[in-house]
Design brief:
The chain has 189 residues and is of the alpha/beta class. The chain has 5 helices and 9 strands, in the order E-H-E-H-E-H-E-H-E-E-E-E-E-H. A hairpin with a 4-residue loop joins strand 7 and strand 8. The two termini are 17 Å apart.
Amino acid sequence: MQKGILIVDFGSQYTQLIARRIREKKVYCEIHSFNKITHKLIKKLKPKGIILSGGPNSVLDKNSPRLNKSIIEYNFPTLGICYGLQALTKENGGVIARSLSREYGFAKIKITHNSKIIPKEWLNKYINVWMSHGDHVCKPPKGYKIIAKSNNNIISIIENDNKNIYGLQFHPEVHHTYLGHKILANFIF
């Protein structure tokens, strides 16, 4: 790999779109299924960063896809999107809960804290995003800060700035999310 982005695929319908958005920025990326991630693969690829895709499963189900600990152990900058955020949260000791109803479609989130991946001009503003989830983060892992919540009071962005780990409960890769490409660019660069 030429120091690009490793996309860990948890079965999202948008995984190929994430790759396309990264390649549009002239950055190399590879997609690998969550169950193919090994220490050997990560050592071989030496990615610049890792994106954890969304997926149709619930991290609360017994047989749901799990986040390979290799991803966390290597301390690569990491961005979890939807299911990726939830897997990251659960693996690091945070709390996930089932939503009373699935959230699918447009939502507004309010940015309450600065973040490296969020444009500074968004602070204290409501931003339109595209949600698609049945579970949500109730409590972020220790060391993580809540950056935004939705108009339904759902935690929408978390980060651990010291470790360069970020999580989004929405899809930045779709055109429905206002300037989502900026979030991806800020993570990548």
